[in-house]
Automatic annotation (TrEMBL):
<dbReference type="Pfam" id="PF13738">
    <property type="entry name" value="Pyr_redox_3"/>
</dbReference>
<protein>
    <submittedName>
        <fullName>FAD/NAD(P)-binding protein</fullName>
    </submittedName>
</protein>
<dbReference type="InterPro" id="IPR036188">
    <property type="entry name" value="FAD/NAD-bd_sf"/>
</dbReference>
Length: 383
């Protein structure tokens, strides 16, 4: 029986595993990471490569190693060219990924990897039983480190097109889309946040045709997806004093800068627009239809737009990422998210991370900073 089983091998699962292993409290043979993909961070690397991300939004101190300046040290030691940009020292994606791989090699995290899909999770006597496609496993404690990018949000108007012309419309979270270069130009990108702009910049750089970006709201420019005060006592003190979880949910919703991007990325889009490479349309989509070799996108206020391919950067569905295999469902709030304690425990021995932990961690719960906070709490429990 394992001491810890982590379900999910993305940023959150690997951060928690790295913290546990580097603490010395947990040995390699006492820890298991269950994930359906072949290697750690598979989904992260696939999506960030797909949209052409070059630099992260997070600052240099947000990464998978417990030591806060580990990434900066790694860049110096390896003489990395252009490792960071801006006053927050945002790391390049290549540097961030290389640092992750170095951590995995240092901790031998690959020896803890178990490729499988979870089919059932149920409590036993002082243990949890995890049934997978590759057998049954047991652990004293389980961490649900499940992200939101497994459930792409398809607008209602896109659902019929996805059925009738699946090769013409894709969401960046779709597993069957390995590269947006595979889709025929011209392109229509739908969405107005950071992923939309990364995708637009990427396509403008690799294609000669004008790229169209259709968004519902004006550009929202913020350094981070929530105020940095949510990382510490400035806002978290009052947040944790609030016992009404419905009010906490409202605080999280109000704190998040949804559909926003940092200024450096906004300026890239602005330059492409000025050169005529990017067309930006702010409007609501009323419907789409296939018309020969084109997709006709009908808008409420502007003229219809004709494109060959539609790329959705509309984020994840708003529901929590609980799967059918969690047949024993502990208590949830009215918004459907877990009721957890300060140890991020949903039930005795069952912990959560990422979006599932946000009613305790706060609005940063889903990002790398949230992964680090979760890992610190869980590592403190290990013995």
């Amino acid at each position: 029986m394992y001491k810890w089983i982590i379900i999910g091998g993305g940023i959150h699962g690997c951060t928690i595993a790295t913290f546990l292993l580097k603490s010395g409290k947990v040995k390699k043979d006492e820890l298991l990471i269950i994930d359906p993909y072949p290697v750690p961070l598979y989904k992260w690397k696939t999506i960030t490569s797909k949209i052409g991300m070059d630099y992260l939004r997070s600052p240099s101190v947000h990464h998978l190693d417990p030591a806060p300046f580990s990434l900066q040290k790694y860049a110096r030691d390896n003489k990395v060219t252009a490792p960071f940009i801006g006053r927050f020292k945002r790391p390049s994606l290549s540097l961030f990924n290389a640092h992750c791989e170095a951590l995995f090699a240092e901790t031998d995290l690959y020896s803890c990897w178990f490729r499988a899909k979870v089919e059932n999770l149920a409590p036993g006597k002082k243990k949890w039983m995890v049934h997978t496609t590759n057998g049954r496993l047991e652990a004293k404690r389980v961490v649900l480190a499940i992200g939101m990018n497994t459930q792409p949000s398809y607008p209602a108007w896109a659902e019929e097109l996805a059925k009738s012309n699946p090769h013409r419309i894709h969401h960046i979270f779709d597993d069957d889309l390995q590269s947006i270069r595979e889709m025929p130009p011209s392109f229509g990108i739908v969405g107005g946040g950071i992923s939309s702009i990364h995708t637009a910049v990427h396509l403008c750089n690799v294609h000669n045709e004008k790229v169209k970006l259709i968004k519902r709201h004006p550009f929202r420019v913020h350094d981070f997806d929530s105020d940095p005060g949510w990382l510490g006592p400035k806002y978290l003190t009052s947040f944790r004093k609030e016992n009404d979880l419905n009010i906490r949910r409202k605080m999280i919703t109000q704190a998040r800068h949804r559909g926003s991007m940092p200024r450096n990325l906004f300026m890239k889009a602005k330059r492409l627009y000025g050169r005529g490479q990017l067309e930006v349309i702010t409007d609501e989509i009323s419907g789409v239809r296939a018309a020969g070799s084109y997709i006709d996108i009908r808008l409420k206020e502007n003229q219809s737009q004709k494109v060959s391919s539609v790329i959705l950067t509309t984020g994840a569905a708003s529901r929590h990422p609980i799967h059918d295999w969690l047949t024993h469902m502990p208590k949830c709030t009215s918004c459907g998210f877990p009721i957890i304690n300060k140890n991020l425990e949903w039930e005795n021995g069952l912990h959560v991370s990422g979006p599932l932990a946000e009613l305790e961690i706060g609005p940063v719960s889903r990002n790398i900073a949230g992964a680090r906070k979760t890992a610190e709490i869980i590592t403190a429990l290990a013995n």
